[in-house]
Amino acid sequence: MLVIDTPEPHSRGVATSSDGVDIPYQIFGDGPETVLFVHGWCCDHSIWGDQIAALCSDYTVVALDLASHGSAGKRQNAWPMSSYVQDALAVVKAVNRPSWALVGHSLGGVLVAMLAAEMRAETAAVVVVDAIKRPDQTLPQQDADAMLDYLSVDWPRNVPAWLAEAAFTNKTSSEIVSYVERALGSADGTTAVEGLRDFLAQDHAKLLDAIRDIPVLLMNGAPPAPSADFFDAFHPDCKLVEFEGAGHFVMLERVEDFNRCLREELPKMFSAHLNESSPASREVLI
């Protein structure tokens, strides 16, 4: 069984989202720069435990639970991405730090790209983990609707088969598969399906174009992933790191490589923000 050990937080708090939902967060470490971790669909902050442990000695690390996830309050009958952005923005305002690296996985990756556009001056870096795809890699609306219908018919029964096809590779360990299946299988099916619906509708190219003045690091499983050349037209400072053989849950499947990459790249991105300079786009395979 996969066990993720999250360090004991220095403090805890609860922010209030724009619609009144309680959004709990935890703070680890007390470094001068701040890293926000946003979990993905049907998960919670604990999925980032290994990354929190790797960074909290050098940074102030903040991790939250989005509405209707983990220990957060429940949101009724509305699950647009914009509401999740407001959840994260409420935490940022409550913690009140001057400079942030925003790290998000999957739905959380799209969320942090949207969040950065709302807090441009405070955002030093955006790290998107296996969320941004080329237009030809996104699901056509008809296929997305069919997938959502399939999941909604019998969520606990159908989600494992869907995950096997969509999220894992033949190198993904059985422990990680079981961990993710438990997390998603225990989620509320309606919340899960409706939250996924708006996530799938997002235009990734437009998301990155809207934050073209902020350094972006894409950390993707490989294959498939967009090539770095794909981003040049609409984001001049985007670096792509691909983790060979990893599936969707890169931070679980390649923990040491993933954490090493974060430790190497975050200082550069914070420094570039401070000095208002940017490196050229690059592509790396790990």
Fold and architecture overview:
Residues 35-259 form the AB hydrolase-1 domain. This is AB hydrolase-1 domain-containing protein. Pfam families: Abhydrolase_6. It comes from Litoreibacter roseus. By secondary structure, the protein is α/β, with parallel strands linked by helices. The chain has one domain (11-135, 203-285): Alpha/Beta hydrolase fold, catalytic domain (Rossmann fold, 3-Layer(aba) Sandwich), CATH 3.40.50. Helix content is 41%, strand content 19%. The protein is built from 11 helices and 9 strands. It has helices spanning 49-55, 81-95, 107-118, 141-153, 155-166, 174-185, 189-200, 204-209, 228-231, 250-253, 255-275, and strands at 11-16, 22-28, 34-38, 60-64, 100-105, 123-129, 216-222, 238-244, 282-285. A 9-stranded mixed beta sheet has the order 1-2-4-3-5-6-7-8-9, sandwiched between helices. Strand 5, helix 3 and strand 6 form a beta-alpha-beta unit. The longest helix is centred in the last third of the chain and has 21 residues, at 255-275. The model is unreliable at 277-281 (pLDDT under 50).
